[in-house]
Amino acid sequence: MKVIVVGSSHGGYETVRGILAAHPETEIQWYEKGDFISFLSCGMQLYLEGVVKDVNTVRYATAEGMRAQGVHVFVRQEIASVDANAHTVTVKNLVDNTTRTESYDKLVLSAGAVPFTLPVPGNDLKNIYAMRGRDWAKKLKLKTVDPDLQNVVVIGGGYIGVEAAEVFAKAGKHVTLIDMIPRVLGLYLDEEFTDTLTDTMKANNIYPATGQAIKQFNGKDGAVTSVVTDQGEYPAELVIQAAGIKANTDWLKDTLKLDDHGLIEINDYLETSAPDVYAVGDATLVPFAPTGGHSRIALATNARRQGRIAAKNVLGDKTKMPAVSGASALSVFDYHFASVGVKAGTADGLGINTQSVFVTDTVQPPFVTEDAGNVPVYFKLTYAPEDGRILGGQIMSKRDVTANINAISLAIQGHMTLDDLAYADFFFQPGFDRPWNIINVAAQQALLNK
Q1: What pLDDT is recorded for position 244?
Q2: Could you say which of 284, 314, 344 is where a domain stops?
């Protein structure tokens, strides 16, 4: 059997890896439009801050290593079109501009997404960057040490935007962080957490300009000089656009069924509207465990799960994509947070009723001093009011307690309730935590509140 996999990031990589693990004799052709396979954009902050020294190591695999395993890896070659009836693709060689036709038995599309470009005047000026991919990583690294760069504007207050803002604040630049929504990280955390993080960002030379819409970019001699919103103008020698992503699917609109956001429509087995064609990654929806519906959750973890499930289905092992809870985590200067599932701030958009309980504790027992690392921890548990079913959670501290959110993710997927969590068995050792895990504390408090 011949399988063509398009795209080398999380979903594409895991598809290839899954096929190799189960049936290494399969003929696999793996295509990457760029010149570098499996770059991890989620590792960019570590590279830009110097934690990782070599940008070429921020990857899952090398072309040479995969070829040694029998995979036919093609870089700088683009799948220009798909003929689903003929089971063929047209391949464009970006080096010499030639084209050829390749046949397939199964085709897996990890088309991914591209940074959303704001359709406003001046968006073609120089020094308007994105924070996605190896090429942008190299350009951004040079800007962190540019002595002529003083003012940076980051557009988008999600994970990528906050990472970019922190990178340049640590590099000594003044950073303005602009977002249309009222709170930075508002899609990931409720106010109890974002208020603290906003104060932390302000204390570290980041100015959050929230609730503002971009109107235009001003420039001089072809380079950006400021960003104009509906509420003000902000100087900028560098702009980083991190205001969402757009599915990279325009080239598929005449081949596959796409939704009104350009996402590829797939079934539970990741099959598209065309026979023997599968899709994974940021250009698809995933089943969302808290609601039972489907959501767009562009996380590497989800793409990799899809890739492994796609591999199973390609090889004839009929397997449904499991529901996910959308667990994620990030550090913002001294704080570490994680969230999963439904938040109070996102419940209305999902059309569900929720209740929540917010608790504050210390990581360790009171006899352990703050000097010894015993700091506050903040936790919010969200649940269904009618039956106490767990729907989501958020946790934050200056100690890294983010792994607790994995327990909430499992609770969501296992349809557990407050009663299940109130006295669930978690270990205790005073060098690490308290006799009652903060998850126990929150569930017990929620039961008292009912």
Answers
A1: 86
A2: 314
| 265 inside domain | yes
Looking at residue 200, which CATH number applies to its domain?
A: 3.50.50.60
Q: Using the 3D structure, point to which of 314, 346, 365 is the last residue of a domain.
A: 314
- Per the structure, the complete domain to which residue 402 belongs is given by 336-449
Q: Which residue is catalytic, options 42, 72, 261, 415? A: 42
Q: Which residues contact 100 (CB under 8 A, 6 or more apart)?
A: 90, 91, 93
CB 412 within 8 A of CB 291: no
Residues 236 and 250 in one domain: no
The answer to whether residues 123 and 237 belong to one domain is yes
To the nearest whole percent, how much of the chain has pLDDT over 70?
100
Q: Is residue 284 part of a domain?
A: yes
* 10 belongs to the catalytic site: yes
- The answer to whether residue 61 scores a pLDDT higher than 90 is yes
Is the same domain home to 371 and 422?
Answer: yes
Counting the structural domains of the chain, the total is 3
pTM of the model: 0.94
42 noted as active-site residue: yes
